[in-house]
Amino acid sequence: MQKVTIKTRKKREVLDITDTVESLLEKNHAQAMGICNVFILHTTAALTTADLDPGTDLDMLDAFEAMIPKLRYRHPHNPAHVPDHILSALIGTSVALPFERGKLVLGTWQRIVLIELDGPRQRDLRGDHDPRKLGGGCLPLIGSPPVLIVILSEARSFARERSCGVEGPVSACSTKKRQGRGAHPFQTPLNHK
């Protein structure tokens, strides 16, 4: 697991960390493909993807602030930063993104952003770059809410799945083997016609 420290400069800000994450991928996984998991080890900061056209960062911060009601919070440590904890929980503290040949697979305008909610601070990130082959399997991701992502790939994966006698591009072979014991509650084969 890789460690990165990012210094923030303001009470609230949006920082683009895409280049930092990609430089680690290029250095350690230049020929691999897989899932890059990034997690922030704090409860008053968040991670997500965003479009960073000029002014969008400030729009995001204004919208986040407007989402939080002005209440009398009971947090014993410092009630003034309870909204920061709430926003961190709502936005999320991790991202899981595909990568190929050391480069993140992102949309045209997508960037990975660290959202500082109670700075300035030094923020610690941990990253795990899983270089397993992406091929019709299910990868469990840690985040909020818990999610199971189904990754669909090329016809080659589909053919492999059909060879085990189960139709569909999901990791159905392992589901079929487990049926006698009961399939995993989140792993349901898709019916493709």
Q: In which range does the helix fraction lie?
A: 25-40%
The CATH superfamily of the largest domain turns out to be: YjbQ-like
Q: Describe the strand arrangement of the main beta sheet, using strand numbers.
A: 1-8-3-5-6
Class computed from helices, strands and strand pairing: alpha+beta
Describe this structure in words.
- The chain has 5 helices and 10 strands, in the order E-E-H-E-E-H-H-E-E-E-E-E-E-H-H.
- With 193 residues, the protein is α+β, with helices and mostly antiparallel strands.
- The protein folds into 2 domains: 2-134, YjbQ-like (Jelly Rolls, Sandwich); 135-193, no CATH class.
- The longest helix is centred in the first third of the chain and has 12 residues, at 56-67.
Question: What is this structure's SSE topology?
Answer:
Layout: E1 2-7, E2 13-16, H1 18-28, E3 33-40, E4 45-51, H2 56-67, H3 82-91, E5 94-100, E6 103-104, E7 110-116, E8 122-130, E9 138-141, E10 147-150, H4 155-163, H5 172-178
Antiparallel strand pairs: 1-8, 2-7, 3-5, 3-8, 4-7, 5-6, 9-10
Characteristics of this structure?
single chain; 193 residues; alpha+beta; Jelly Rolls; 5-stranded antiparallel β-sheet; 3-stranded antiparallel β-sheet; 5 helices; 25% helix
Briefly, what is this?
By secondary structure, the protein is an alpha+beta fold.
